[in-house]
Design goal:
alpha/beta; 26% helix; 243 residues
């Protein structure tokens, strides 16, 4: 589907599997069938936290979004996906940065959060934003479409990281990059150690091109690109949680 056709849709409603966050590793019986060809991650998963931010001003006082967008080299005319968008803290700021010639796709697996974001987009008349429901093992992104894909404080909540990253690969445009912002702590404490993050991306075939620790943002910043070849699902080895 051409990306501009996609962005013409204000909200695409898809069926959503019920996924519960937990402090343990997801049992095979609870995994979606569409993830069966991929290894089960060897790590616990944080419970999904509320997508509602009570004080966006506090985040702006730290300069969070501006600094992350600067690190990611976001500029006018780009097409960006905000995965785990919630109620749109990054979505609306990305939309302002890319301007009328750019596009932002806000995606989440939380239908209610997306409905609230849809009302916000309509209220603020943000015409360069589209909204889409994703799945736990598939971001549901159109091929060859995005200059940047943002995963901000959400990757540690992905229950099927190998299927998720594998299916994200085709969505990057030529020279496109995936931007991860997260915290260096165990995955069941709403973070992910950098070594484990690197391993999971590299297992698919991505390459790390930049890593920056940002104590001022209480986070780290990582940038990935596609490598020479995407691994076949049967050749992906799960990374050890001890990394």
């Amino acid at each position: 589907m051409p990306v501009r056709t996609l962005f013409a849709n204000a909200l695409l409603v898809l069926s959503l599997p019920i996924i519960s966050g937990c402090d343990g590793i997801l049992p095979d019986s609870d995994r979606p069938e569409s993830a069966a060809d991929f290894p089960r991650p060897d790590r616990p998963v944080s419970e999904v936290v509320s997508n509602q931010f009570s004080n966006e001003d506090a985040r702006d006082e730290r300069g969070e979004a501006v600094q992350v967008m600067d690190l990611a080299n976001i500029s006018a005319g780009m097409t960006v996906a905000d995965i785990g968008a919630g109620e749109g803290y990054y979505t609306v700021r990305l939309a302002e940065r890319v301007g009328s010639a750019g596009r932002v796709l806000a995606q989440d697996i939380d239908r209610e959060a997306l409905e609230r974001l849809g009302r916000r987009v309509e209220r603020e008349r943000l015409e360069n934003i589209s909204i889409k429901l994703g799945e736990a093992d598939n971001p549901q992104l159109p091929d060859d479409s995005f200059d940047r894909i943002f995963l901000v404080h959400m990757y540690h909540e992905v229950t099927e990281p190998y299927a998720f990253l594998w299916r994200m690969w085709p969505a990057l445009a030529e020279g496109g990059q995936i931007i991860v912002v997260d915290v260096d702590r165990p995955t069941n404490r709403h973070g992910i150690p950098p070594a484990l993050l690197f391993c999971e991306f590299e297992a698919i075939g991505y390459k790390l091109v930049e890593f920056v620790e940002r104590p001022d943002l209480r986070s780290y910043f990582a940038r990935f690109e596609r490598g020479a070849e995407k691994a076949a699902p049967e050749n992906i080895a799960a990374c050890s949680n001890s990394q």
